Every structure is written in C-alpha cells, then in structure tokens.
Amino acid sequence: MKKKSISYAKWGYIFLIPFVVVYIIFALIPLIQTFYYSVIDYTVSQGSVASIRQPATTGDNIIDNGFCGLDNFKAVIVDNGIFVSSLKNTMILWIIGFIPQIIMSLLLAVWFTDIRLKLKAQGFFKTVIYLPNVIMASAFSLLFYSLFTRDVGSLDILLGHPYMLENVGGSRTVVGIINFMMWYGNTTILLMASIMGIDTSLYESAQIDGANPTQTFWNITIPLIKPIFAYVVVTSMIGGLQMYDVPVIIGGPTGGAKGVLTTLVAQIQLGKNSSVGKVSALSVLVFIVSAILGFITLKIMDDDTVKTRYGKKKKKKKA
Amino acid sequence: MPRIEGVAGQTDDRTKLLIRRIIAYTVLIILVFISLLPFYLLIINATRGKVQTGLRFFPESYLDDNIKTLTSDSVKVQYGSVVRAFLNSAFVSVSVTILSVYFSALTAYAIHVYDFKLKKAAHTFILIVMMVPTQSAAIGFYRMMKNMTVFGSNGLLDSYIPLIVPAVAAPSVYFFMIQYMSSSLPLEIVEAARIDGCGEFRTFNSIVLPILKPAFAVQGIFCFVGAWNNLFMPQLIINSLDKKTIPMILQVMRSNIQGNPMAADAGLMNLYMVIAIVPVIVVYLALSKYIIRGIALGAVKG
Lengths: 319, 302
Description:
Number of helices of chain B: 14
Number of strands of chain B: 0
Mean pLDDT of chain B: 86
Distance between the termini of chain A: 68 Å
CATH superfamily of the largest domain in chain B: MetI-like
Number of domains of chain B: 2
Structural class of chain A: mainly alpha
Strand content of chain B: under 5%
Low-confidence stretches of chain A: 304-319
Distance between the termini of chain B: 28 Å
Mean pLDDT of chain A: 83
CATH superfamily of chain A: MetI-like
CATH architecture of chain A: Orthogonal Bundle
Helix content of chain A: 55-70%
Radius of gyration of chain A: 25 Å
Oligomer: heterodimer
Structural class of chain B: mainly alpha
Strand content of chain A: under 5%
Number of strands of chain A: 2
Order of helices and strands of chain B: HHHHHHHHHHHHHH
CATH class of the largest domain in chain B: Mainly Alpha
Shape of chain A: globular
Largest sheet of chain A: 2 strands, antiparallel
CATH architecture of the largest domain in chain B: Orthogonal Bundle
Largest sheet of chain B: none
CATH topology of the largest domain in chain B: MetI-like fold
C-alpha cells in the first residue's frame, strides 16, 4: 500500500538513464579510449605509416607496441609535428575569418541598436545576414571551390587566372572569406542582444552631455559589453578549433597548397585508421586547449555583468 | 526607446545623423547583396551548362538537361542516386532531431522536477561535458565503432547507429531545455497531474511536452540544421556510396573536379548544391523569427 507522502526521487534517476547510458557508451568511453591510445604505440600500418618504434610494414597490419609514455606527444609537438603545424594552420584560418567578422559585427550591432539612428527593416537585415550560417558549409565551400578552380572556374577566368587555391595566401583567404560570411550574422546578433541590455539612460545622458557616437561607443558600449565580447571571442575560438568542413572542401584531403588547410580535426580524419597513437595524442591536446577555453567561458558566464540581459540591470558609472 | 532631440546645434546634428544613416544603409545593402550572392549564383549556375565561363546573372536554359544528367545512370555510378542521398540525409537528420529534443527534455525534466541526491551533481556534470568538443573523442569513437560487434555484424562502421544514437545525450540542448523549464514550467502543473492520478511518465508525455513546444521548435531547427550540414561524423563512419549523406557526396564531387577539372560538369554540381541547401532554406525562411530569437537566447544561456 502507498504511504501518504510518496517519494518521487526514483523517477529522477529513471528519467536520467537514457542520457547517462548513451553518454557513457558513445562519449565518455571513446574519450577515455582516446586518452588510452595517446600513450600507446598503436599504428595501423598500411604500407607507409611507421609507428614510433617500428618501421612501416605492408598490408593492413595493426602494430601495437604497448605503452610508450609521452612519445606520441613528443612526435606530434617536436619538430613541427602534426599538432604544431595543424594548430598553426587552424589559428591562422580562424584569425583571417574572425578579425573582419568582429569588426563588422560590432559596427552592425551598434547601428542596429542606436537610438538615434533608428534603422528600419531590421528584421529583414538580420534574417539575411544570418542566412549563410544555416547553409551547408560543404555546399558553400564547393561553390567557391568550383568558382576558383584552375582554368575552368568562372572567377578564376574572370580575375585573369590568379590560381587562388594553389597558393598559400589565396587559399587561406578563400577559407577566411567563407568563415566570415558564415559567422558575422551570428556574432552581430549576440553582440546586439548584449548592447540592448545596456541601460538606455546612459546613452541619453551621454547625448545630452554632447558626446558624439564614437565617444559613446568607446566609453559606454565597449566597457559594458566586455563580458559578452570575451564570450564571443572564446566561443568562436572553440568553434575555430573544430574547423573542418570549409578547409577540407577547399583544400581536399591533402590540405591544399603546401597543406596549409589541414586543420586539427582534419588530422583526426586522416589518421583514424593509420597513426592512431599520434592522432590520439593530438586529440588529447585539442581536448586540453578546449577545456581551458571552456573553463574561461564558464567563468565569463558566471560574471554578473553577463546577466544584465536577464533583466537585472547592473548600472556602471562611466569612468 | 525614448528619443531625445539634440538641443544645441540642431541642424548640424540632423545632417550628421542623415549622413550616418546613409552610410549605415549603404553598408547594410552591400552586405545583403554579398550574403545573397552565393545563393543567387548557385541557382543561376544550376540552369547553366557543363562548362561555365565567367559569371552570369540571368538564368539559362540548361536546367532540364542538368536534371536529366543528375538522374542518369552514369551519374548514379559516380555519385550514387541523388534521391537516395537525400533520403539518407533526411533519415539521419530527422532521427537526430527527434532523439535530441525528446531525450534532452526528459533529462532536463528529471533534474527540474524531481529532488534526488545526485541532482546538482548531474546538472554540473552535464554543464562540464557541454564544453568537451565531440571531435576530441572522435578517434576513440572511431576505433570503438570499428571494433564493436553488435548482432553479429562486424563493427558499427558504415551504419547509421553511431550517427543517430549519440544524439540522445545532447548537453547543449539539455541546457536550453532546463533554462526554458525554469521559466515556463511551474511545478504546480506536475502536482495537479499527480493528484489526478496521472503516472509520472504519462505526465511528461502528455502534459509537459505540449508546454515545451516553443522550446522544441527552436532546438529542433538547430539540431536539424546541424545534422543536415554535418560532414565530419558521416565522413568518419560511412564508407559505402549508397549510404553517403549529401555533404559527403559534395566532397566526392570536389575530389572529382580536382582529379579531372576539364570533365567536371558545373551545371550538375550546382544543381546538386541547390538540392543540398533547399530544405534548410525553406525551414529557415519559414521560422527565421524563432531562429534569430533562439541565437540570442542560446547566447545568454550558453
């Protein structure tokens, strides 16, 4: 017979089961395995891939020499190893896309929220500038790839055969342009939400004091959106670390000109069935970098000023 | 928002404002143009022939030919059936979407409604794992799927299970759901259902789920778009041509251009890309209001 007060606690546990079980099987165990492989001299040799202690053998042979300490890490870090080179590639691609993106987004966010400017048709503009973000990155990149293909691409012909995709700067620029186009709308909307949380009376009093828009921007907007700004930078970096679709379509499996489009994540695809140990070491390093960035994000989110937009307005006096 | 007119130097201010407005609109119109140009080019190029020299801004008459080529046998050998690829993508994306939103809501419900010892710990745990990029565990995931034997099959590679089932544990969707519940799901509703003798599981399915509809819409769109556009995971798992999703076929096309640029059929490729982006564009234009709102919401909340 039921007691008068029933404990529903067990239902909490029951409803958590699917999430927990799936997470453990499909995310936690793979993560632990990745850490495990990173300290194992484990290679699937396909005729060309050498392991740490053994030269390449022919055929689809698994070479498992057991524990090798930090040799895999040494191999991917020292002497411009795959981690260092692909981290460099990834960061350069990220920066080329991010700098124009943050400048443009700040400008747009300020315009959209300017109380004097009062731009019309904001909904339309926002919808359009965000549109590229939902589009398949692979399709976007393939379009650019076909436009710039040597001798047959329309833009290659139109621009007088610059062979953009065959030189280092050109291919990086193309990836940067695509990343910029895909993400500036997203960043604009994030920054806008943050600027809209700023107390309008601050702007009004600045206006009465005769501040021009530039002064208002540097002395009110920027200091007050700093936390969200930091959030945007850090989350964009986390996203940048995972960059894959665009560079792999533009550069192909070999990473384009001199392999400069081979990103961190592309290395995982390349090594999934060959240099398992080394790629695992690289994954662990990606994990560590992401963990640090993620920790920073959580810290920023804890910051009180981020919560301005929930309605609890925190007024800051102008310095 | 209240507006205050300038007091001193009013005319001067007005001209300045007008100039700023003109600059703002000009930049915005240029950006609109840049953002829409790729789609316009895709659609125009899909109506053009095999060899496309220079840019054109008006449709040509090769659309029928391109459609015929797309469904021809030779293309099927190269790229698989386009209908099949479309259905593969649709199957994976729809399954991922349903699993993600349903189970994330269930998980969030467990933590929002019930009091149990591990409640706080579970919440913190999910927040932490939200920060772990799936790619960093990808190599372990691949090796595990390769070696896993289920129902006598030799590994889970080249099957959809590794693409679909992990969607049950989607920390970021969970995070959104729990935020939504704390603002729009009063516990009184659950208690009322209990008094009426409704079982816990049924309460969730028939009373709570309808309340969560708006949250489902927002997260559903993001899940669908993410899965539809995903190249990395299918690339990791799928090998055979008839199981490939659309982004994978696009990658095959790309390597064919590199292999033999002169033989590439630009009209065909552009038509394929149009097909690849149409479902997302339709969903986006129909629901852009929710999407734009969802981005800002997601930002506040992570």
